[in-house]
Amino acid sequence: MDTTIEVFGSIFGFLAVYFTIKQNIWCWYFGLIQVILFCFVFYTSKLYSDLILHMIYIFLQAFGWYNWKYGGENQTNLRVTVITKVSVWLSVTIFATVLLGYTMQNNTDASYPYADAFTTVASLVAQYLMIKKVLGSWLFWIVVDVVAIGIYFYKGLYFTTGLYVLFLIMAIIGYLEWKKAYNEEFAYRIQI
């Protein structure tokens, strides 16, 4: 595997999360470059669930940009909201993880099929919630990052492991920043 692709993917991934924390629409542009580069990284590492995830992410980057730009009231910028139906999102994550993990274990030579399936499914849930600017998306990302750090470390993807350590730190910061923005917006709505 070419480490250069992993390094550049990590740089663009860092920038994507940084701009997401700042609620800046540039996050979707940097995210697009990152996910394209990581398609190559995960294919050569036999992390097929992650490969599938990043192929889906290519389309989600465009959807995310559009939703952040026009998904708010009267087609304005979207505001941070809170998660609803937590049990539904958790149930979907568990069911789809078991299904994908079983499929990967029995039909491919995938490494860590269930852990890889979990990071894939939970990332899709987190990404969907992020596209909708839901505060709880950061909590999903925190769990994904913890599991991903272990997988990537054991696969020898050290730059990616380092990136996910940064992602974990940034997810915690993102949660706190978005919570602050939500609280300020909520307080503003009450005053009107």
Textual characterization of the structure:
This protein has 192 residues and is an all-alpha fold. The chain has one domain (3-191). It is 80% helix and 0% strand. The mean pLDDT is 89.
Which keywords apply here?
single chain, 192 residues, mainly alpha, 7 helices, globular
Task: Write the H/E string, N to C.
Answer: HHHHHHH
Mean pLDDT: 89
Count of helical regions: 7
The percentage helix is: over 70%
Portion in beta strands: under 5%
Reported for the largest beta sheet, the result is: none
Task: List low-pLDDT spans.
Answer: none
User: How far apart are the termini?
Assistant: 56 Å
How large, in whole angstroms, is the Cα Rg? Answer: 17 Å
Task: Specify the structural class.
Answer: mainly alpha
Total DSSP E strands: 0
Total domain count:
1
- What form results from the Cα inertia axes? globular
Task: Give me a quick take on this structure.
With 192 residues, the protein is mainly α. The chain is built from seven helices and no strands.
